[in-house]
Amino acid sequence: MFFNVAASKAAVIVKALAITLLCATVLLYSAECADGAVDGLTFCLNVLVPSLFPFMAIASFIVNSSIAQTIGKPFSKITRAVFGLNDSFAPVILLSMIGGYPVGAQAVASLYKNNLASRAECEKAALFAVCAGPGFLVNFVGISLYNSKTIGLILLFSQMLSVILIGILIRFAYRRKSGNTFDRAVKFKTMPLSNAIVQSAFDSSKGMLMICSFVVLFSAFTGIINSFLSDSDTKDFILIFLEVCSAVNEVSADKPIELIAFAAGFGGLCVHFQIYSALGKVKVSKLLFFCTRIIQGTVTALLTHFGLIMFTDKQQVFSTAAVQSADFFGGTVISGVVLLGISICFLYTIKNFKQN
Fold this sequence. Notes:
By secondary structure, the protein is an all-alpha fold. Helix content is 79%, strand content 0%. The protein has helices at 2-28, 30-64, 67-72, 76-83, 89-99, 101-113, 119-128, 134-145, 149-173, 193-228, 232-242, 244-251, 257-266, 268-279, 286-311, 314-320, 333-355. It starts with a helix and ends with a helix.
């Protein structure tokens, strides 16, 4: 009892000190912070909004008009056999692949809220129904950054396949009893066509505002990081850990596309926070979710590597984005730490599944 009280007080003190340090840093580096925020705004207006907003509106319309539910019905038996989830999850998994990061989590939370799936099923789905989506990977990364739709499609299908592979892994490794398995078909709220168009514009605007807000916020701190960090590899590593949009924009200048694929699969803490919020009452271990994202990022990077070999002239691909080689982190202390971290995450994930 005494230990718990002491630990709680210590956590409050640490949080207070961290917030104080953060405020002091912003004040000391106010100019760099402002410059970073301006760069983030420019990046949002010139790149993110034109490439993401139209596709987000289309994806939202597919949801609101129940098209996804119609498309998902033929895959219901596959969902049960491959992922061990009831038929209701077929459109959810489809939506997670075409709608972007938080859409899958929102759909999973909707199933649980409406008593259409058990808690165990929702926990399983929440671990792997996470995907960047076509708007981000094809329009933004492929066309805007690399001027190549082929690269965007390779990244997209690599991440989709990684979602499927991670789902299969979880299906066989997750030993917890699922409890009641619901067989009723999911019923999403639908609306007339005109209302769906208006709601889709509203939803995509709201989502775009949230994404741009995070980008501007993390870009402001990136400006501070750039002022006292000279090593580009370390800065890229921190960006990938924090926020995927800014990270992809920076890393694409001189790093391998495989690293872009890892960043998209991992998502960054910014995306993780959005997903935790969207899941609502569906509680998933944050450490387990974090480890699963690292594994998914690694699988996405490997699949992207083979996809580039099969469908592109790799030398030409790298020259397009001014990428020098695929030896990022190769043969360094950082590479050893990254490999060790991935191995630990994999072992922890398997251990956690077996204990459940």
